[in-house]
Structure formats: structure tokens, C-alpha cells
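User: Is it possible to get a 3D structure for a protein together with its bound compound? The compound here is pyridoxal-5'-phosphate. I've pasted both below.
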Amino acid sequence: MTDRPDPEPHLDPEDWDAFRIDAHQALDDMLGNLEQVREGKVWQPAPPAARAEFARGLPRAPQALSDVLEIFDEAIVPYANGNRHPLFMGWVHGAGTPVGMVAEMLAAGLNSNCGGRNHIALDVERQVVRWAAEMLGFPQSASGVFVTGTSMANFLALLVARNAALGHAIRRQGLRNAPQLTAYASAQAHGCVIQAMELAGIGSDYLRLIPVDADGALRIDLLKQAIAQDRAAGHKPFLVAGTAGTVNTGAIDDLNALADFCQSEKLWFHIDGAFGALCALSNRLRPLVKGLERADSVAFDFHKWAHVPYDAGFLLVRDAPTHRQTFAAPMAYLSRTAEGLAAGETWPCDLGPDLSRGFRALKTWFTLRVFGTDRIAACIEHTCDAAKYLESRIARSALFEMRAPATLNIACFGLKSSADGEANKRIVTDLHLRGVAAPSTTLLDDKPVIRCAIVNHRTTMADIDTLMAELETSAARVA
Ligand SMILES: Cc1ncc(COP(=O)(O)O)c(C=O)c1O
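Assistant: Yes, that's possible. Here is the predicted structure of the complex:
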């Protein structure tokens, strides 16, 4: 018998009462920080002293939790991303909620591995899958899986569509002897759709980026032409990826017309609905995404417009068996039993490449239960109203002009006086450095524009007034 060290090593607190005090304090501090989030800067660069903390080598010796919490408070908290702040309007970021934070902490406490097996966390996830189907108008038989984000969900959808087109034997055989697949999306599609073609081994040269109309929606007449040309060239068109809310301007493709077209052409109809899919929650906005409910698959994020803390991407697939057959593998160590912990037919690991995966469903479940979808929809509508209000303020501005219609929650505009748009970039950087607002930039017609994606449930109309004043200050500063 080997000598047992005494005490035997473990990672639980030596003194639970002392730990409780630190843990409660950490929770309280973060709640206080969230309560005050509006008062602070949107963002500030981390100074060298804070960054130096992260240049240290591997810690071999233990350190008190209270000491590490102190470092967290001083070197991490003040220099965070900023997306919780109501004047953060860059990219498309969710703001999170205190409810989501508590749920995330509870999930970490349970530390469930949601790759599979017979435990209650999977019931929660399956319930959210059914709720997602209900939200988007899919049948309850649809299959769904949490992933990191819409980039991953788009990639998985493309793999499912690829296998549906070529048969599941390509899992073994690869694409070498397969016909050349071609896919279609609008020229405003997110870069992750292009990347998905590369990752899937099809090649981004075979993704046809179809020009958009004046509203930013894919031109179906040109889509038809591109598909006819590809068929004439002997290629095999397999997938159309519509967009519900483009990243640049929030434009929405004519999803219903695309659904008709894909049905008649026997093409897989996927929708990248990263944020726009959740328009389906709102009676007012739902008509904009009509046709969403007819897609073969939809990728979207709970971490954007539903404010579930990062990360909570989601893929919904109408044809559950095809989804499963794309990923499921009969590994001995994952075999199922009729009862016990290894029971259950379909496990989440059968629906994507992740085996070990966390309990993303819990923070989503808490968010949906605590707020209800009507309240989330009201917040979504409010961000669209705020974008419209910003559009109206820009229209009346002497300095700025709109560069694309604010269809949803995104307003793109620029200085009237800047022909090449370079000053727009300088204005955005100045806003960031002053910590007063955080829009981002993008290119429209190859020229930089200021882009405000209003996603945050905390953003008020008064914040839009503040933004306008700060834009004018920054315009004067960079002139
Ligand atoms: C339309 C669209 N698609 C895909 C993505 C990527 O989503 P994620 O960042 O969750 O991977 C985004 C991100 O903003 C997006 O707006």
C-alpha cells in the first residue's frame, strides 16, 4: 500500500466559512459594478500596470482567493469590453443581465458536462430547443444545439446541408469524388459564411456572393442566374444562406421568396439570423422575417438580442435525423444503455463536434423564464426605435448624413464633409478613447462609415441625445 499524503490534496476550501465571505463579497461587488455600469466610462485602455499582471509566469504556489479577487477588481474589471454600457454600440454585442450572471454562476456550481448522458441539464437544454423551435415557428420535432456563436452554428448548418446534398458516406469518403458543390449568399453575408465554406472543404471560391438591392437584400433575380450558370457548368448548387439582419446594416433578405425558390429548386435553405432571427419574438417585427419559419436551418445567438451572457449561439435544424447523422458516431465509450446514467437516445454530442460542453442552456432558460419573451421582445423593439430616433437626429444634423437606411437596430452614417470617410474612423476612435461612446466602423460602398448597432437593453433615447452631442464634440476634435 502506498503512503497516503496527509492531508490528501484536493481543491475545495479549507475553510468554507471564510470562502463564503469572499464569495459573497465577489458577488456583491459585481452586482454593484453592474448597478453602476452607466456611470463609468464605456471603455478605457488597460494601462501598462494592469497589463503587466498578465505577463507573469505560471503560478506554482497557491494564493488566497481574496488576493486574486483584488487583482480581478483592479486589473480586469475596469478594462472590460464595455458592451454592458448603454453607449456601447459597436459590432453586435449583447449586454448581459444580472439574471444571466447568477445563472452562469449556478451552472458553474453544478459543473455539468452537457455533451450527453442521462441528467437533468439535458432536459433543460431540450426544453430550450423546443422553445427555440416555437419562437421561430419550427415544428417541435426540429433538432437544436447550443454552440459558441452564430459563426459556429453557420458552419455546422453548412455541414448538415453538405451531407444532405451528397449523402452521409462523404463522412468517410471525403469530397474527392463528389460533384463540385456551390452555395449562395448575399454580398452582405457575414464573413463566417465564407469561412464555413473553407472549413467544410468546399472552398470559398464556390460561395457565390450575390449583389444586393438598395435595401441591402439579396437580389433573387441574380441568384437565379448564378444557379443556372453553375448548373450549366456541371456544378451542384446545394445551399442558399439568407440573412435575417446583416452585420453591416441590419438588412433582411426576402426570406419568404427565398424559401419558395429553394423549395422549387430543391436547395437547402439556411438562414443566418445571428441577431435578426429574434425579431420573431415581436408581433411588430415578425413580418420582417416572414419565411424564417420555412428554413431548413437557422443559426442565431441568444447572447445578442436576448442578452444571455456570452456565449450562447444556437443552431436549429428542421430535419432532426439528418442533423444527427451528420455528426453522430458509434464510439464504444459513448454507447447508450436502456437505463442509468448512460441512457438516452440523442445526446448533444451527436449534434455537433463538441463532446465536452457546458450548461449554456441554463443561463438561457433562466433568462427566458425570468423575463419572458414578451419583455425581451419589448427591449428588441426599443433598440429598433432608438436606431430610428438616431436616424432622425442624423437627418436633422448639419454635420452628419445617413449612409444606409436603419431597417432594424443599426444606423450607418458619416460626416457630410468627409469625401473619403477617413474622418469617420478618427471620430470613432476619439469616442472610444474618451470613453463616452463605442460605435464601430464598417465600409459601405468601400468607404468607412460610423456604425451604431443598438443592441443594449439599457440604451435609452436620452443616450441617443448624448451620443449625438459626443459625435459633434469628436467631429470638432478630429477636424
Ligand atoms: C449576421 C451575423 N452573422 C454571424 C455573426 C457571427 O456571430 P458570432 O459572433 O456569435 O459568432 C454575426 C455577428 O455579429 C452577425 O451579425
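The radius of gyration is 24 Å. Residues 91-92, 149-151, 190, 192, 243, 245-247, 272, 274-275, 301, 313 surround pyridoxal-5'-phosphate (CB under 6 Å).
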